[in-house]
Amino acid sequence: MREQAIVDGMTEPVIFRETAELHGLRSDRAMFEDFARRSADLHRLHALELRERGHALPGAAAALAALAEMEGVVQSVVTGNIRPVAEIKLQVFGLDTHIRFPYGGYGEDHDDRAELVRTAIARHATTTPFAEADVLLIGDTPADVAAGRAAGVRVLGVATGRTNTAELDKAGATVTIAGLENLQPLRALLR
Length: 191
What we know:
By secondary structure, the protein is mainly α. Helices cover 51% and strands 6% of the residues. It has a three-stranded parallel sheet with strand order 1-2-3, sandwiched between helices. Helix 3 runs parallel beside helix 6.
């Protein structure tokens, strides 16, 4: 369980580098970029299998749709995945409709998850000024919560993954909920 938690907090470039090191290989950015292209190609090729093995979490599509109806809300993604893989994963489960991918923070942008949050904020701030107090990160792992807190933003912890509400609370989530079926806490944080 501990090893999984460590991987959950890592970005794809870090996982790639550490995996290469485990096999006695010295990697560089060009090697990672080749890997990233191949990874995106494989995700596209196996999208049907991904859809068959996985599923969108209950309430996720409704939450995205509800947020899209709120004035001034811009939705994007902060993830340790590279952007093409993040796009494919969300498309496969029909969760990409309301996402503004250009404003996201992705694994290839930085090794540190808090920097990915800051990258997403900076990308959006170039088109629309806003305060960091207006930013809400929604995450389901202690690593997500830690990244949001380190970046100085509020975090809604959602216990839909392997992490329970107590663990998300302990990590410092602003508010923690058991799932996305009840959108009231989400709406309250965005008012």
